[in-house]
Each structure stands twice: as structure tokens, then as C-alpha cells.
Amino acid sequence: xxxxxxxxxxxxxxxxxxxxxxxxxxxxxxxxxxxxxxxxxxxxxxxxxxxxxxxxxxxxxxxxxxxxxxxxxxxxxxxxxxxxxxxxxxxxxxxxxxxxxxxxxxxxxxxxxxxxxxxxxxxxxxxxxxxxxxxxxxxxxxxxxxxxxxxxxxxxxxxxxxxxxxxxxxxxxxxxxxxxxxxxxxxxxxxxxxxxxxxxxxxxxxxxxxxxxxxxxxxxxxxxxxxxxxxxxxxxxxxxxxxxxxxxxxxxxxxxxxxxxxxxxxxxxxxxxxxxxxxxxxxxxxxxxxxxxxxxxxxxxxxxxxxxxxxxxxxxxxxxxxxxxxxxxxxxxxxxxxxxxxxxxxxxxxxxxxxxxxxxxxxxxxxxxxxxxxxxxxxxxxxxxxxxxxxxxxxxxxxxxxxxxxxxxxxxxxxx
Length: 416
Ligand SMILES: C[S@@+](CC[C@H](N)C(=O)[O-])C[C@H]1O[C@@H](n2cnc3c(N)ncnc32)[C@H](O)[C@@H]1O
Description:
About 35% of the residues lie in helices and about 15% in strands. It has about 425 residues and is of the alpha+beta class. The longest helix is centred in the C-terminal third of the chain and has 26 residues, at about 285-310. S-adenosylmethionine binds near residues 178, 197, 198 and 279.
């Protein structure tokens, strides 16, 4: 590969301190922007000469297939920007918008419209019936802003970076027109208000970012939502999946907080982090209904920690009993679509308890959950590979069991 992703020739020898040791940093700039950026990076230097500058990197034409691309601005260091963009090849981006293929992915036309919702500003409402487990929306980040500034970066510089990040986007009005909380006392700039009101906290390449997704950010929160979101570090896109059948005319909702939280911490989190008092159907339901939901969510946490402790003590049959009860509670509370990463626990516990049939059922559920990452990144690929291997080994073991009645022999641990 003679060239680096951002168009510069590779170093003949690796440079140790760079994330991409064979690629020069795209900073300092040349007079012409270096692809994939459509603008020269806008950078501020920190007072320490040894720390890297913090810059805005923009490609105003992404996603490239869109008629009205909102663009992507990343606020980070040059090395980190190159890490993010080296993943974001056009093939991967295309895949984010075409994977999974129908029938799991919905049609070319949007199955929703953004319209006013009483008491919540705007919101996304289904314009047709959406079956459970369909891709409803895919949205590339418009702004990814680091939350890891070193202490010597001044507040006014952070504001300036945000201003430039938004100003350079392909659809500035679209982004500036998103919801704002307008926290008067804090004297926020419009960009800060928009980002603070609409962004999700994300981890990319093990760093913390605020991610703004203009289309997803029109979806309101519900404590018992009918859709869920997946963010891919590989494509920097957020995918919205329906969690149950959604009827035409029904509002599409996601959870901004942990979907398993009981009402008090949930409402506190929504108020402190997102700045609003939740008026979703669960929060406005009669007291008895809210209490029943809280009881189930508390039981969920209690049963999970009991099952974990019992499994650690090697009491797999008791752990399996707790997990059976836990999954009943999950079902009753309608949380089943949101707990995909929990299935590994019952899978392993049932395996250790000698119930290979049930273990296989849960490993298959793990697989379905992992496959939901529309375009899996390297970590998801590895997890998928692990589960595939486990399932193959289980099949062999089940066949052997049928002939000789032995106890489980293989420990289904992660590959080291
Ligand atoms: C990410 S935006 C969602 C879209 C927004 N309603 C709009 O008009 O663009 C978050 C804002 O929507 C409103 N919101 C979202 N979910 C809500 C809920 N469950 N109850 C009340 N307000 C909500 C709050 O004003 C919140 O600050």
C-alpha cells in the first residue's frame, strides 16, 4: 500500500510514536486540504510543546451517496483523526448503508417522518408498520468532539473548535436547527447548546467523544422504548433497530439512559445529563404501573448479581435457576431486545451445569445479537468468531454425549 489513507506517501520506516507508524501526520497543513478532508485542519496548540495540537478535521461531503450530505467534523488530535479515518473507507461506509440487506433492512424510503410531538418538541413517527428487528435508520456522525482535552486547553479554544466544526459541515442549518435546551445561566454558544442537547457519549478507539447524529437526534427518549441504537466504531454510523412491532402513527423512541434502570436513577440521569424531565408513557403511567416496573428492574439487577456470584462459586444449577427467573422478569418488563450481551451468562452457566441444549440456545442468541452490528468492527468480528467456534465445539460435544454419557469436558472460555 504505497499511500496512507489521507493521501500522503508512507514512511519507509515506522515512526514509533504515531498510531499509524508508517503514515505521516496530516498536520501541519499544506495549502490544499489533504484527502479525505475537504478543509485544512483548524488547530489550536496547547501550552505544553510536547502535547499534540487539537484540531477540527472536516469532510463536508459525507455520506457521499446522500443528496444532502451533512458532512463530518472530528475534533481530536491529528494522530487520533487518522486512526478514525483509516477505518472509514468508502467500502465500509457503503456497507453501513446497505447492510444488512432486506428483509432486515427497510426499503429505500424512510419509514418515519419528523413531526411535532406534544411536550417534546419534534420526534420521529412511523409512517408505516415496522416489524420487530428491522433497520429503521442509519446515520453517520456529523460531529465527533473529544471529551478528553488536557487541562491546559482554554474554554474559549474549545468553543472555537466547536464553532469551526459546525461551520464547516455540509448542512450547517440542519445541524444548527436541532433542538436546544438554552440553559441561560451557562451562557452557552449555539453550537455548545446543540451538541449538549443532542449528543451521545461514545467511545471510539478507547477515547471518549460526544457524537452528534442529526437524524437520530430527532428521536425522543422513552423509558420503555420501541427501538434501540447501535454505534459502529468502524463506520462512525448509528443504526436504529426496531425492538418490537411499531404501528403506523406510533412515535419511534429509544432509551438515552440504561434501559434496565429503575425510575429514580433513570430520571436523575436524564435530568443531569440530558437536561429534561421525562414525560414518556412509563413516567406518566399510574403509580402502581411505575412501581411494578421498578420492582421488575430491581429484581433484574438482584438476580443478575446473584447468578454471577453463584456461577463464580461453581454452583451452576442454582445460578441457572436465578437466570431462568431473571429472563422471565426481562420478558415481563419488555427488556428482551435490549439485553443481547447478557445471553453469554446463561449460555455458559447452562453449559457448566451440563445442559448443552439450553447452552446452545443461548449461544445462538449471542450470535444473533453480535450480528446486529450492521458492519462489525474488528472486536465484534473476533467475538463472532469466538461464538461460532464455541457453537461448533458444542455440536461435537453433544454428538459425543449421545454416544458416551460423559460430563462436560471442554471449558468454553474465551480464546487467549
Ligand atoms: C435529542 S433531542 C430529541 C428530539 C427533540 N425533541 C427535537 O425537537 O429535536 C432531546 C430533547 O427532546 C426532548 N425530549 C426527548 N425525550 C423526551 C421525553 N421522554 N420527555 C420529555 N422531553 C423529551 C427534550 O427537550 C430533550 O432535550
